[in-house]
């Protein structure tokens, strides 16, 4: 071997050694920081799913393809990670670019953690945010429809016997409504725009859903406290607007927790603004208002609340296939980002149906949820 070739081989060897040392330091840094929660979603996903040995081989393989298996594919790209960190734009995800250029487009940043049947980015949950003057305008109730729907809905209730277990007078579930004005169009007269489906009448808005859920849980031995506060009036008294609704409901929740240390679960009930074709399904010949879960990620209880939502969602789908539209995660850029879920690790924001749903459809879904929730509740009762 010539002297020139010997020098070249030496440099190659040194380069490989230096490369190995460099990536050892990089991997060590990743391991050290992997316990921290990063704000950048791409970096978080990259670190959470990392396998140190595989990553090391991947990086060495990028220099020497001998280290790749015959059919091995790259599952991630360090270039893409670096590009995202520098620009906050995800390659291949147009939402990360357009969301900064088109007003209102940031709603599509909502993360679909569990997609229900037919759920995609074209039919994400839609939240109407009417001004306070619209909320204060009381809508006339369609009394005939209400009476007919109530009759049909109440015919379906099955639980009549005393529950095998009871909470012995304790109230462990707190049901409330940050948007108590959200009503259902079929129960109101002359409502064509979803933003107009608002009412303080407890029989035609989401308070009716909360009341029915409290009743169904009670039938199954679970004590529930239902807050029927008119949030619209509360906001008006303080000269607050729609954007302060979670701040207002937070005070109510904190008061409830302070007055009852037995409260373990918080359930904030809403309804979506999507049309009936998206929010309704048929299971076993019965109509159901589809439901879904919203989890805020801007707080320390995020992982526990997400896990709870995923577990209940999975059990619902197992018993009632198609009833759920899924589990969605939102940060501050897509909504409140917290939703009072920082107050406990057993908090749910649950949306029952949409603006076009009727009471029989809603009641069927409430009963389904109560059944699944109570099964989980009593199985975990020893740890409560």
From TrEMBL:
The UniProt record lists the keyword Cell inner membrane: no
TM regions (residue ranges): 12-36
Coiled coil: none
NCBIfam families in the record: spore_II_P
Protein name from the UniProt record: Stage II sporulation protein P
Alphabetical UniProt keywords: Membrane, Transmembrane, Transmembrane helix
Domain of life: Bacteria
Pfam name, any one: SpoIIP
InterPro entries assigned: Spore_II_P
Keyword Transmembrane: yes
């Amino acid at each position: 071997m010539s002297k020139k070739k010997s020098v070249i081989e030496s440099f190659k060897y040194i380069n490989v050694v230096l490369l190995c040392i460099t990536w050892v330091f990089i991997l060590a840094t990743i391991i050290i920081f992997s316990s921290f929660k990063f704000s950048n979603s791409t970096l978080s996903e990259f670190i959470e799913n990392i396998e140190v040995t595989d990553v090391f081989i991947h990086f060495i393989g990028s220099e020497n393809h001998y280290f790749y298996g015959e059919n091995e594919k790259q599952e991630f790209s360090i270039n893409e990670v670096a590009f995202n960190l520098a620009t906050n734009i995800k390659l291949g995800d147009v939402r990360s670019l357009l969301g900064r250029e088109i007003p209102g487009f940031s709603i599509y940043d909502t993360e679909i953690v569990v997609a229900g049947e037919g759920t995609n980015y074209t039919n994400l949950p839609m939240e109407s945010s009417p001004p306070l003057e619209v909320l204060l305008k009381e809508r006339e109730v369609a009394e005939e429809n209400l009476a007919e729907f109530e009759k049909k809905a109440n015919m379906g209730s099955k639980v009549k016997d005393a529950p095998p277990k009871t909470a012995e007078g304790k109230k462990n579930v707190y049901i409330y409504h940050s948007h108590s004005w959200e009503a259902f169009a079929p129960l109101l007269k002359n409502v064509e725009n979803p933003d107009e489906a608002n009412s303080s009448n407890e029989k035609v808005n989401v308070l009716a859903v909360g009341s029915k859920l409290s009743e169904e849980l009670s039938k199954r031995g679970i004590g529930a406290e239902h807050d029927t506060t008119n949030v619209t009036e509360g906001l008006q008294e303080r000269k607050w607007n729609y954007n302060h609704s979670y701040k207002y409901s937070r005070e109510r929740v904190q008061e409830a927790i302070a007055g009852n240390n037995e409260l373990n679960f918080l359930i904030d009930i809403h309804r979506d603004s999507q049309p009936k074709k998206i929010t309704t399904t048929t299971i076993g010949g019965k109509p159901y208002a589809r439901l879904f879960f919203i989890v805020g990620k801007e707080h320390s209880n995020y992982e526990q609340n997400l896990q709870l939502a995923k577990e209940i969602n999975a059990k619902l789908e197992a018993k009632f296939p198609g009833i759920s539209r899924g589990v969605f995660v939102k940060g501050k850029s897509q909504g409140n980002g917290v939703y009072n879920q920082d107050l406990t690790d057993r908090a749910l924001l649950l949306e029952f149906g949409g603006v076009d749903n009727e009471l029989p459809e809603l009641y069927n879904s409430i009963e389904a949820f109560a059944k699944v929730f109570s099964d989980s509740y009593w199985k975990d009762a020893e740890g409560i």
